[in-house]
Amino acid sequence: MSGSNTSAVRGTPKLVDGRYRWVACKQGCLPLADGNIRKLSFETNRINLQQKPTMTVIVDAHQHFWNYGTYQTSWMEKPPYAGDPTFASIRRSFGPDDLQPERKAASVSASIIVQAADGPKENDILLKHAALTPWVAGVVGWVPLDKPDEVGRMLEQFSRERKFVGVRHLINVEPDPDWIMRSAVIEGLSVLMDYNLTFDYVGASSSITWANPQLPVAHLSLGRRY
After folding, report:
1. In this structure, what CATH number is given to the domain that contains residue 73?
2. Could you give the angle at which helices 120-132 and 148-158 cross, rounded to 10 degrees?
3. What is the pLDDT, as a whole number, of residue 175?
4. One domain, residues 139 and 158
5. Tell me: the pLDDT tens digits for 180-211?
6. Distant-in-sequence, close-in-space partners of 118: CB < 8 Å, separation ≥ 6
7. Which domain holds residue 75?
8. Are residue 15 and residue 38 in the same domain, yes or no?
9. Together in a domain, 8 and 107
C-alpha cells in the first residue's frame, strides 16, 4: 500500500459481485488492478502500517575466552588469586562452544569478548574468534598504553577491524597503584579517542575520568580484585 498517509484504514466492507469491497468514503481512493475502485479513509495519530515491529536485543557486554595454563590465565597464579578456591570453577579453558548453550538459554543475541591478559597476542586470538563466530559483536583488546607511539601504530592497524571496539589493561595487577595516572598512560589513553574507542577500566576510582573527561569509559568489577 502507498499514499501520503498510511496511518490506519477505516470503512465498512460490502459484498459486490460476489467479493467484499470497501464502501466509498470521502478521501484516499486507490485503484485496484482489476479496474474496480477501493476507497480508503485514513485516520491520523494511529499506528503506522509500514512501521516494522521492534524487538529486544540482549548483549553480554563482558565475557572471556581463554586457554587455561597459557599466558591468558597466568594472572590466576599470582597474588591475590593464586590458591583462591573461588576460582576453581574457571580454572579450565573456555571457548565459543562452551558459551553457545548458555547464550541460547539466556536469550542473549550477541557478546563482547574482552581480553584476559595484557599482550599483543591476545588481540589476534580474540579477533580470530570474532571472525569465526557471528554472534560475537565486538572485541575489547589490549595495547601498551604507556607507549603512546606504539598505541597509535597498533590502533591504525586495528581500525580496519570492524569488531575491534575498545581496549583494556589489567591495572588491578600493576604494582604501581597510580599507574593509570602516569603521563605516558594518559597520553596513550587520549589516542583511543582519536579512533572512537572505549577504555574498559578495572577499578572503582574516578581518577581516570578526571584526567580524561572526554574518554568513553566502561567501569568494570566495581573495584573488586578478581
Report:
1. 3.20.20.140
2. 10
3. 87
4. yes
5. 889 999 999 999 999 999 999 876 555 666 56
6. 142, 169, 170
7. 59-223
8. yes
9. no
